[in-house]
Amino acid sequence: EAEFDWAFGPEKGHFKGTRTEHIGEWPTWDLPILAWGKQQGGVVGFSHSGWGLQLPDYMPYGSRQFPVGNWGGASPDWKGRSPDKLPDYAMPRFDGIGANEYVVDVTHGVCDFISSVDTPSVWELNIWYHTLNCGYECRISGETDFPCIYGERVGLGRGYVKLDDQPLTFDTWIQGIKDGRSYCCDGLSHLFDFKINDFEVGQPGIYDRASVMPADAGEKLVVSVNAAAMLEDQPREDIRRLRLDQKPYWHVERARVGNTRQVPVELIVNGQSVATTNIDADGSIQDVQFEYQLERSSWVAVRIFPSCHTNPIFVEVKGEPIRASKRSAQWCLDAIDVCWSQKEPRTRKEEKEAASAAYEQAREAYRKVLASSFDDTTDR
Q1: How many CB atoms lie within 10 A of CB 179?
Q2: What SS3 state is found at 137?
């Protein structure tokens, strides 16, 4: 049974039930829509996530400035360099149709995944990394958005789910997305069978929470993954010369190590690359292992940037929630204010009170996270 307010022109009303022939226009903010989907048993999340989450360029003398436009790229005489570091603590403008209100909605428990691959990689991953650092367990999945963003083919942005030996159905596949038993990529590199010790990504863990495993402080963790990538023998300058925010946003060519035929497989802990192993991008499957010790609860993933990314395994040390970064918590708190400044004028008058309250509830959630997070404010 669903329940929501509706409006259509001057008419408005309240609906509660399972069937209606007329609900009017959709709400002008997205939390009610996501909540409605969850109430019906759906797996819900954001599409074309990067739009509105553009980050300012690095300028020659150290400042950060936005190039003209909102869709990536820059004029030939522009001197800036597109962002390529994660996490990035600069603030987007939250002025687009992507995962802008994700920073609010994830605190309300109504967002299962954020999409990737079809918009600039750093724009997508940055907001996700910050919320993961605050302890929210949203997953990532691939998207093409055919034919709106990419018109070449469907399946340009991909999500691969590991399933048990059972019939393939949409329900079992989408449950794998929700549980994070999956990875996303451009189809030109792959990272599968990701696990820590004997704990696989997506498997039930602490209190049956998918991908959540216990560990002791200082315990040696063996991280393993099967990796494969395919590069042409010679570098493709038509891709390498492009900014990261120009198509193709995710492509294995961008990961090439110099002029070699290798790509880096990175171990990511709380958004930081802490170890790297290069593999030959000849299409062969290679077993990659890392050893790492955690002193505090953390999320762990593996990536080939910007071509492939696993979902995280959430490692809880002594049962403590992940509170990885005061800088990320403050970024999320500040982001809510910027997002509200953009969305409030576009929210219907009769919806603003509920929207404002939901935003404030999200602020309070991040304030609590900020107070209990690891202090990384001096690590710059």
Answers
A1: 21
A2: coil
Q: How high does pLDDT run on average in the chain?
A: 95
pTM, to two decimals: 0.94
Contact residues for 62 (Cβ-Cβ < 8 A; gap 6+): none
The token duo for 59 is 């300028």
Listed in order, strand segments (DSSP E) in 108-162 are 113-116, 139-142, 158-161
At 202, the pLDDT band (50, 70, 90 cuts) reads very high
How many C-beta neighbours within 10 Å does residue 344 have?
Answer: 13
Count CB-CB contacts under 10 A for residue 126.
24
Task: For the chain, give the longest Cα–Cα distance.
Answer: 63
Assigned token pair, 238: 């038509």
Polymer length in residues for the chain: 380
Angle among Cα 6, 14, 26 to the nearest 5 degrees reads: 15
- Report d(CA 141, CA 161) in Å as an integer: 10
* Residue 6 tokens, joined: 């509706």
> Distance (Å, rounded) from C-alpha 97 to C-alpha 75?
23
**Which of 333, 266, 276 is CA-nearest to residue 130?**
333
- Is residue 54 within 8 A of residue 37, CB to CB? The reply is no
Q: How would you classify the pairing of strands 212-215 and 313-317?
A: parallel
